[in-house]
Design a protein that fits this description.
heterodimer, A: 646 residues, alpha+beta, Flavocytochrome C3, Chain A, domain 1, Methane Monooxygenase Hydroxylase, Chain G, domain 1, 18 helices, B: 253 residues, Ubiquitin-like (UB roll), Fumarate Reductase Iron-sulfur Protein, Chain B, domain 2, 2 domains, five-stranded mixed β-sheet
């Protein structure tokens, strides 16, 4: 069935990584000095990879679009990072973390990759501690843990509600040390606009200097993409404004397969959309569901009065509140996984029980927890989140329930990679959220940070040697090669074309329209007719975009609208692929819910017989259907079962 | 959540096309802004209008829009990050402003932060300070188990208080001397509180301070404006610790 070589090593699951490392090539220090590696993106995955590769002796050139690597969106991760340390003596283990991740991913991830992730997870914590990451500590000085959704043990390490920030600053400090030593050449405010492929191998990138507008060429023996996910295709998401998929997308167009784009994580607890002027959505940590109870009014008339502002939520008596998660899922209650909680909120709002003006919000109420534990305890646990909520909404969550609604948060799909994290273009690697490999159809909380750092610190520095070991005789890549010339010209042509449309409509309007199409038809609940409609509407929107786009300013100056236009052109194609992938996958799994594949009670129903595969798409042209390649998922260790949270 | 609309406000903003160009203030009218809108969304609305009128939109730095990346950097009505406490510009909301008000928006003003365009400034100097010594010199791999290094809860908490710095530069923009002491102190103090950072403490304090001085930041006169402007409320007590670290490093030279 598979026509993709995932290069999964043979042998028992627990020995695959060890055996693999023993077999792959290693490059001598003298030869590493002669080899150049480009790293695009310097969040957790990119910064950790760039620093580690430079420490090994490779010449690294790194790029980020922000003014500092410290600003990559990894910084915004709140809750924590998982690791199989078993410090709590609660019977955690590498196997248990592996098992939880496979199950949480609804059996759509590769066993071998996930096991390796669990194996290296303890090393990540050690590394971060050594760098000076101020993790939370017990009175005796040992590291603290907390629990997260979907698991039975306490394995999440954290630094208040700013774990992503602290881990990124750790990786950033390691990167800074290498920049200081001259082993990493760092380019901030530079955006990758094309990949250069020479004789079938990734050999460089074309970037735009976002200050001068100059287009520049960079060559290397290998190129690493650590450019994050594509959640911003939906316009409104918890991603940063600049997060984009263009690096992955140009790689796709140059031959890197794109896998499982339909696996998008919708996080249940975000601050709801406010009017039409909103630019992004803010996450409220999953940890809040430990103490908050989710409800909507049981009576529709109460919901209507709430929407009109005629009554206050506190006016609704307990018996007239529908704690729908506790009602539908008595055993997991408010702590069901993210995909389940999100769909349940949508179901209530669609049925007319939404509680804000737009009818698109449910309550997350701390009244009961405050009664039980006291305000001080709740403030100690969630004070910073409550403060953030109040700053944004002007509502005091100690007095009134929070309003929440699901929002696009993370993308499990991404560039297809083999076990070595190499894409289908030799010499091109993809790390972190940018690749597809470890989370299957749904990511567990506190696992994104783990994967980004595992890839960058402990996987790529080993596996890249297997490729570069064959490149030691390849001289420095000249950027005068015709392939560089052609790629630079194509980039210029695209930018000039976008700039010269001179229509009437700024980029954001197209982006909002695309987001609405995707949210309505390719969001939390999908069906065949809606997906087909989405594909048609996106094609139409693409035509409008190229006819009516208005980009102001100058090509050769700071020009955020030009940057956005380029990213938008790619989103308009990616959005279509997302819908196509969702249309192809007729089962429901994890974050992907097909209405046609549900149990009688409306729960997601997987179809292992027909869909236990990775869908890897090959680009065939903008207006040509992409080719589907299937990588069969073989479960040697864990038996497939239907998830249940009842 | 009553949705009050500001029918009309005025934004008086610094316009400067490039680092060497002469800058000036321009005043624009913005209509129909919900008070629930964030400040940067209001700028989005204004920019949309400017683009449609064939004008150049205002260039400004922003990214996460949830107060953690440190990218946004506007000086609003005489305050770094505007007239609210413990927020970045992206978390500032229009309910802090009233009907008909003129809102003055300036870039961070400091010799070490040259203007790139409009209210977007170059904070590369911060990068250079971090590169000079803001790290523990450990390579990937070969480190001890995390629980081998025991750290008291108070020390870990204090290190975290300092580590919360988002590197936005509000401290520099607020300081009458454009001093970067709070920024440098946050990193030096974080690592000084932890055993991992002790080994290189002296070298670090000297290297980071020397780099700061070299890059044209002013000196600290302990007036504490930085602490008030800091969106993460980093305490100037960390500056005191930096001074101790620096003095003891110099004395042992």
């Amino acid at each position: 069935m598979s026509d993709l070589n995932s290069k999964i090593p043979s042998g028992p699951i627990a020995e695959k990584w060890t055996n693999h490392k023993a077999k792959i090539k290693v490059v001598s220090p003298a030869n590493k000095r002669k080899l150049d590696v480009i790293v695009v993106g310097t969040g957790l995955a990119g910064a950790s990879a760039a620093a580690s590769l430079a420490e090994l002796g490779y010449n690294v050139t790194a790029f980020c679009y922000q003014d500092s690597p410290r600003r990559a969106h990894s910084i915004a991760a709140q809750g924590g990072i998982n690791a199989a340390k078993n410090y709590q003596n609660d019977n955690d283990s590498v196997y248990r973390l592996f098992y939880d991740t496979i199950k949480g991913g609804d059996y759509r991830a590769r066993e071998a990759n996930v096991h390796r992730l669990a194996e290296v997870s303890p090393n990540i914590i050690d590394q971060c501690v050594a760098q000076g990451v101020p993790f939370a500590r017990e009175y005796g000085g040992t590291l603290s843990n907390r629990s997260f959704g979907g698991v039975l043990v306490s394995r999440t390490f954290y630094a208040r509600g700013q774990t992503g920030q602290q881990l990124l600053l750790g990786a950033y400090s390691a990167l800074n040390r290498q920049i200081h030593e001259g082993t990493v050449k760092m380019y901030t405010r530079h955006e990758m606009l094309d990949l250069v492929v020479v004789e079938g191998k990734a050999r460089g990138v074309i970037v735009r200097d976002m200050v001068s507008g100059e287009i520049k060429r960079f060559g290397a023996h290998a190129v690493v993409l650590a450019t994050g996910g594509y959640g911003n295709v939906f316009f409104l998401s918890t991603n940063a404004m600049g997060c984009n998929a263009s690096a992955s997308w140009v790689a796709y167009k140059k031959g890197a397969f794109f896998a499982n784009p339909c696996y998008v994580q919708i996080h249940p607890t975000c601050i709801p959309v406010h009017g039409s002027q909103q630019s992004k959505l803010t996450l409220m940590s999953e940890s809040l569901r430990n103490d908050g109870r989710v409800w909507v009014p049981a009576r529709k008339e109460d919901a209507e009065k709430l929407r009109k502002g005629e009554i206050n939520p506190n006016d609704i008596a307990d018996e007239n509140r529908d704690f729908y998660l506790e009602r539908r899922y008595p055993s997991y209650g408010n702590l069901v996984p993210r995909d389940v909680a999100s769909r349940a909120a949508k179901e209530r709002c669609d049925a007319g029980f939404g509680v804000n003006k737009e009818g698109m919000a449910v309550f997350l109420d701390f009244k009961y927890a405050i009664q039980r534990l006291g305000k001080d305890t709740i403030a100690k646990r969630y004070g910073n989140l409550f403060q953030m909520y109040e700053k944004i909404t002007d509502v005091d969550p100690y007095k009134e329930p929070m309003q929440i609604y699901p929002a696009i948060h993370y993308t499990m799909g991404g560039t297809w990679v083999d076990y070595n994290l190499m894409t289908s273009i030799p010499g091109l690697y993809s790390l972190g959220e940018a690749n597809f490999s470890d989370h299957g159809a749904n990511r567990l909380g506190a696992s994104a940070l783990m994967q980004g750092l595992a890839d960058g610190y402990f996987v790529l520095p080993y596996t890249i040697g297997d490729y570069l070991g064959s490149e030691i005789m390849t001289p420095r890549i000249s950027t005068n090669l015709p392939e560089f010339e052609a790629a630079e010209k194509a980039v210029m042509t695209k930018l000039e074309m976008l700039f010269n449309i001179k229509g009437k409509t700024p980029v954001d309007h197209f982006h909002k329209k695309l987001g609405a199409i995707l949210w309505d038809h390719v969001g939390m609940s999908r069906n065949e007719a809606g997906l087909k409609q989405a594909i048609d509407e996106i094609k139409k929107l693409r035509k409008e975009f190229y006819a009516d786009l208005l980009v102001p300013g100058e090509l050769k100056n700071v020009n955020p609208e030009l940057e956005k236009a380029g990213r938008m052109a790619d989103f308009l194609e990616l959005g279509e692929l997302l819908a196509r992938d969702a249309l192809n996958r007729k089962e429901s799994c994890g974050g992907h819910f097909r209405e046609e594949s549900a149990t009688e009670e409306g729960e997601a129903k997987r179809d292992d017989e027909n869909f236990a595969y990775v869908a890897a798409w090959e680009y065939k042209g903008v207006d040509t259907e992409p080719a589907l390649h299937k990588e069969e998922l073989v479960f040697e260790t864990i038996a497939l079962t239907q998830r249940s949270y009842k | 959540m009553a949705d009050i609309i500001l029918n009309k406000i005025y934004v008086k903003v610094w316009r400067q096309n490039s680092p060497k160009a002469k800058g000036r203030f321009e005043t624009y009218q913005v209509e129909n802004v919900s008070q629930g809108t964030s400040f940067l969304e209001m700028i989005d609305i204004l920019n949309d209008k400017l683009i449609r009128e064939g004008k150049d939109p205002i260039a400004f730095d922003h990214d996460c829009r949830e107060g953690i990346c440190g990218m946004c950097s506007m000086y609003v009505n005489g305050h770094a990050h505007g007239p609210d406490t413990e927020v970045t510009t992206c978390q500032l909301h229009m309910r802090k402003f009233s009907e008909g008000q003129t809102i003055v928006v300036e870039p961070w003003r400091a010799a070490a932060f040259p203007v790139i365009k409009d209210v977007m400034v170059d904070r590369t100097a911060f990068e250079k300070i971090q590169q000079a010594g803001g790290y523990v010199s450990v390579n990937t791999g070969g480190v001890p188990d995390g629980n081998v290094i025991l750290i008291g809860q108070d020390d870990a908490e204090e290190a975290m208080d300092a580590a919360a710095c988002i590197g936005c530069g509000a401290c520099v923009a607020t300081c009458k001397n454009s001093s970067a002491m709070l920024f440098v102190a946050a990193k030096v103090s974080q690592l000084a509180k932890l055993p991992q950072g002790k080994i290189e403490a002296k070298k670090r304090a000297k290297a980071m301070v020397a780099k700061m001085d070299e890059l044209g930041f002013g000196s600290c006169t302990n007036t504490g404006g930085c602490e008030l402007a800091c969106p993460k409320s980093i305490s100037i007590a960390h500056i005191a610790r930096l001074n101790r670290e620096y003095l003891s490093a110099k004395l042992s030279d």
